[in-house]
Task: inverse folding
């Protein structure tokens, strides 16, 4: 039962990727409100960047809304399914990991972990831009499957 629900959600992600992005916004805002007094310290060499959890929540929610809006605006274009799935899953995962780390740990200073999370976020956004470019260059409308 649970496996079919997960597969159904993955199919919806490829068909309408803006929905899971927009569904994640209340979750991120809720977690950031719970951790209202929480902060995250990002250590970069000799410098600490201190960011409040609520500000991270606002930024991530705005970012997810804009990315979802872009997906919604190009919903009639054919995108590469694996790129869309990779982008949506890893963007949401990275944002949730950062919010949860800010709630439970004060320092996000492990340089390797910080670098890998940042690299994964950048990689997923590059794949998004590449997918968007391919979808716009193809200029092929999405085909509807009649069931």
Result:
């Amino acid at each position: 039962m649970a496996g079919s629900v997960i597969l159904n959600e993955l199919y919806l992600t490829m068909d309408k990727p803006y929905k899971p992005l927009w569904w994640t916004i209340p979750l991120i805002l809720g977690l950031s409100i719970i951790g209202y007094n929480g902060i995250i310290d990002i250590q970069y060499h000799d410098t600490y960047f201190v960011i409040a959890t609520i500000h991270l929540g606002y930024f991530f929610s705005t970012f997810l809304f804009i990315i979802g809006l872009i997906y919604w605006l190009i919903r009639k274009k054919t995108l590469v399914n694996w790129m869309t799935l990779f982008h949506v899953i890893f963007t949401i995962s990275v944002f949730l990991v950062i919010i949860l780390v800010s709630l439970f740990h004060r320092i996000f200073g492990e340089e390797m972990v910080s670098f890998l999370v940042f690299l994964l976020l950048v990689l997923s956004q590059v794949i998004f831009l590449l997918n968007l470019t391919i979808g716009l260059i193809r200029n092929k409308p999405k085909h509807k499957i009649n069931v």
Notes: The chain is about 70% helix and 10% strand.
